[in-house]
Amino acid sequence: MSISKIILSFLLFISVQTFAQDPIHLITEQKGVSIRGLSIASEKVIWASGSKGMVAKSLDGGEHFEWKQVKGYESRDFRSIHAFNEHEVIIVAVASPGIILKTKDGGNTWAKVYENLDTAIFLDAISFKDALHGMVIGDPMNHQIVLLETKNRGDHWEKVKNSFFKSLVKEGESFFASSSTNLTFDFSHVFFVSGGIHSRFWVNGHASEIPIVQGKQSTGANSIAISPNKNRIAIVGGDFTHDQNKEQNFVRLDRFVHPDSENKTNRKRHYFWKLHKNTGNPNGYKSCVQYITNNELIVCGTSGVDFSNDGGLTWRKISDQSFHVLKKLPKSRKILLAGSGGRIASLNLDKL
Question: Which of 1, 49, 169, 303 is the most exposed place for a label (fewest CB within 10 A)?
């Protein structure tokens, strides 16, 4: 056999081995559709949403998905979604007009529960604290962050008063609608992370600086997650125009109790968050982060999927596949991922 044939056979072997070892398995796809919204309502019920007015629903734990297009909104990009169950779901569209839709019949019909006709409106993410209370965050307008809240399961939405914000928005500070995971809750606190020219960590309207890459509109934090024991926060991002750059793309914060705190319950204690300085960096730009356990983290982005089993101190790339968002199924180590091409895929962490 010639040298060229030997080299070709070797390269083919390596290629096949690499493909076979990728632990992520495709479930469904819709060409031309970008999926950035993913919501896990239960062990069995999963919803996803994205461009071209498309939503997808699974009732068997992500084994199969049914696709539907929201009538009258075929050109809208629904990058945020929250599913209560198989029947009741909220979707949020980016760009103008800003709209929030809700279905109570499994996606057969949708009611408009919020609309903003301002040409500057851009709604980025949705999160619910409990069954009744939720928020939607949007890019600043007139130097004020757009933060909407509902107290009745998303049937009505009101803008949070500007007095809620203790810090002023900086010029060029905004939010990313990359995975609808830059907004979350913990007890009586609402957390979110901004990105862009300035990227900060916000707690109940007060902003703190974080050591994540920033300085351009394409840089900054994209996603935030809280550990199951509520004692750690993970933040990921980077520069989506240079998605292989792995510098300053991960931040971990650890929670401490104020020395003067005398309350014995978690909800009433006074806490502060401190930067953990010895963390590593996942491989490239990441748009979503999720805690699996208090020590296990998984992240995804256009640069691939990475995993950490030591709280973010070290990282291991597990796939080169590009995804925008991922979520963990409850009572399971199964991960669902979604991204471009309408791809929804699964990953079993026990098989890594």
Answer: 1
Q: Is residue 59 part of a domain?
A: no
**CB-based contacts of 342, cutoff 8 Å, min separation 6:** 28, 29, 30, 31, 32, 33, 34, 35, 50, 54, 56, 67
Residue type, 316: R
If one counts the domains in the chain, the total is: 1
pLDDT tens per residue across span 24-72: 999 999 999 999 999 999 999 999 999 999 999 999 999 999 999 999 9
pTM, two decimal places: 0.92
Q: What angle do CA 240, 245, 250 make, to 5 degrees?
A: 85
> Which DSSP letter does residue 198 get?
B
Neighbours of 259 (CB within 10 A): 6
In a domain, 238, yes or no: yes
Contact yes or no for 252/279 (Cβ under 8 A): yes
Closest CA to 79 of 6, 179, 166, 3: 179
Is there a domain that residue 101 lies in?
A: no
| CA–CA dist 189, 167 (Å, integer) | 16
Q: Which domain holds residue 315?
A: 165-320
Does 117 fall in a domain?
no
Query: Exposed, middle or buried, 228 (CB in 10 Å: 0-12/13-18/19+)?
Result: exposed
Preceding peptide of 330 cis, ω within 30°: no
**In terms of Cα–Cα distance, which of 170, 201, 76, 191 is closest to 125?**
191
